[in-house]
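Batch manifest, entry 17 of 40.
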Amino acid sequence: MTSTVLDSAPSCSTASAFEPAQRVRAIGVSEILRITDHANALKRAGRPVIVLGAGEPDFDTPEHIRAAAARAMERGDTRYTVLDGSPAMKAAVQFKFKRDNGLDFALNEISVGAGAKQVIFNALMASLNPGDEVILPAPYWTSYADIVQICGGVPVSVPCSEAQGFRLDTAQLEAAITPRTRWLFLNSPSNPSGAAYSAAQLAPLCELLLRHPAVWVLADDIYEHILYDGLAFATPAAVEPRLRERTLTVNGVSKAYAMTGWRVGYGAGPRALIAAMAVVQSQSTSCPSSVSQAAAIEALTGPQDIVAERCDDFQSRRDFVVAALNRAPGLHCRVPEGAFYTFASCAGVLGRRTASGALLQTDSDFCSYLLQDYEVAVVPGSVFGLAPYFRISYATSMAQLEEACARIAAACEALE
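Output type: structure tokens
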């Protein structure tokens, strides 16, 4: 009997090859992560590569926030919390929205996840049906389009030119809306362009959306506190309160408080949406880290002075990088209003050849040239839905930025 069973079992040699699910078949790992990983591999191999690809502050998490996490561990706060955020964490988010944005949310209108990306994923997984459309003003954070596709939706890219400040206008929005449109994403300040919307610039978009009641708004405000030149922050639900019942306002602690590794993001919106998002989260990560929540509570409710101080540092870096890029032959860089990225045009170097004779035809070619020949890692604009540009993250030291910009200038000057 045993022999018969063994003989009838399938052998490894006849097992079928793994086939990925259709929902992920056309999607790869984030191109930004791929470029950063490749650059870091070159560094480990001994090459002096400067990596300007990752959207991660180079500052340490402030000491008072780290201390709050340590106290939580000492108290034994290391167990599961409520599924989508502890009551104390949600109260901190509630306080933050009231203090900073003049928005009032009940605790059951707030969701806390393992980063803002998970909050966005939960929202789309909970709301999209196959074929539903999501409008993405380009350039956009590359993960938006991939998340939409994984959740069964259709990303609708709307190119927003440099001439319009990389901002969506009402004519474009009107033209993009169809009977299948479910969401509009607005990210201000923007990754990758650094463009930001004032309240006056958001108002006509919000007014238009009032005439399209089936379209919901996802406001990604993760760079809220990194704004320059005295620009006041604005978010759709505050600009147009009549949109509140179909707006999800997403934020987190990663950028403003240098807490990328703590993995805490949050969103606030209509109760029914938040409840549906909790269902999704309950079958994926469940609750965020209890210790990370304790740190995030301190970040949101504790002293805020260091946020402004670090923003001043970012503005000094922005000014240096923009000026340096505009001096490089063939490059042009708009001054961003916020975040910690420049989004520079490399149109002026395309069609030229490197010293080895390679023809630069795309922004990806130019970025590959910078990495291979001058050991500077940046991200091509085509990854974000708009070419020919490249993104620099200036969330690194001034010394690194000075060396990187010198190399970029030398690379441009060496072209034939």
